[in-house]
Amino acid sequence: MPYTYTHPHPAVTTDIVVFTVETQALKVLLIRRKGPPHEGQWALPGGFVRIDESVDACAVRELEEETGLKGIYLEQLYTFGDPDRDTRERVISVAYYALVPLQGLELRSGTDAADAAWWTVGGLPVLAFDHGRIVTMARARLTAKMEYSTVGLLFMPDSFTLSDLQGLYETVSGRPRDKRNFRKWILSLDVVEETGERKAEGAHRPAMLYRMKTPGNVKIIK
Amino acid sequence: MPYTYTHPHPAVTTDIVVFTVETQALKVLLIRRKGPPHEGQWALPGGFVRIDESVDACAVRELEEETGLKGIYLEQLYTFGDPDRDTRERVISVAYYALVPLQGLELRSGTDAADAAWWTVGGLPVLAFDHGRIVTMARARLTAKMEYSTVGLLFMPDSFTLSDLQGLYETVSGRPRDKRNFRKWILSLDVVEETGERKAEGAHRPAMLYRMKTPGNVKIIK
DNA sequence: CCGTGTTAGTGTCAACCATACACAAACAGG
DNA sequence: CCTGTTTGTGTATGGTTGACACTAACACGG
């Protein structure tokens, strides 16, 4: 069933930069392309916007379809609209980025493990289309947002230690942080609270466990 | 000549929030719609993305076509993609915002004066489509950016006094500023320089004129 | 059971930055 | 030459940020 217009229309997709932090490294989810163009190359998860769904809803749906992840923090990043982004037809991509916590790492069971993988940013392969550019911009936005909001907490599992949290901030934003100053800072923001439990691991003093006061909520600082 | 696709495609437009500052007020350029839908209502300037031009280029072109303004600061704002934004067909809008200096206020000679006008933000009429939402977001972005960059300078004519500049900052970001502190601050940023000329107007001490060191350049602060 | 190694947890002081604040200088006009 | 008006300038204070070192709690091995 063909669809006909009096003027040419572009196709519109969403592409999603899914970030997580694992083993002291910021990682991005990539999918190996199964068809042309760029067959076999790594690309961002994403897909075409359906005619009756909002662009936001498309991003949510694609994220779930390709990764099985639901209820994840998702924010629009930027729209990429160069006419030759895609060789098949004119495609405009609305890019989003998502942050998933350490614990929700299970990828969609349906997908072959070889076709979806977490890559450390900084060691990325050449990506399909202009997806390299998209990742670069997403990374810049994320590091900027780490400085003036509490997005960093979204990478954390339900409960965590302040040392874990400090480690996360250091790996994502690069910058090392002083232990005492970091703790003063994060506690003064009034966004985490003690769970009352301790995490005993290894031959040393056990650490207090914390949780977000309002899970999923992002606070803008200053 | 019809254009046919195997899947339905949305139309894509750009809409532009053009800001200026005039007589102590932040203003937005609005155009009265000449055809349905929302005929006669006020709306943002903008139009459909052509199939062979980039989305950025479309914004530049529309800005020039509808206002005659060229070489203006223009930045992508956000993409609005709700399925029922437009009653005619599915339309996704990539919104931009632009800042024009006081001196370049001449609107396109072709346009009837009654059909294009500067409106003070805060006193806007009900706008067509979701353009009200777009303006709100643009305003938020602008005030935020005033705090951590030198975008404010883009509203200034080629030469200006520091008092003028302070007045501009006060009207755009609301917040009043201390005269001495403002001058210390702006001078420490190293973005303006004295022209050597003075502006004598009225029965009082003439003010030193300044200009941007690198016109059109926006510096990120801190 | 005691010593060792390892991470958790805590306060103070100095440097820097942001803010508040008042008066002389330069001009036009009467 | 007096008045009214806007320009232009420095200092002191309070708050914020950043540097810095030792004790607490535990597991393990001897």
Automatic annotation (TrEMBL), chains A, B:
Boundaries of every Nudix hydrolase domain copy: 7-142
Cofactor: Mg(2+)
An MF annotation (GO) of this entry: hydrolase activity
Family annotation (CDD domains): NUDIX_NadM_like (cd18873)
Stored Gene3D superfamilies: Nucleoside Triphosphate Pyrophosphohydrolase, Winged helix-like DNA-binding domain superfamily/Winged helix DNA-binding domain
Xref: SUPFAM superfamilies: Nudix, Winged helix' DNA-binding domain
Keywords: Hydrolase
Record-linked Pfam families: NUDIX, WHD_NrtR
Signal peptide residue numbers: none
UniProt record similarity statement: Belongs to the Nudix hydrolase family.
Protein name listed in UniProt: 8-oxo-dGTP diphosphatase
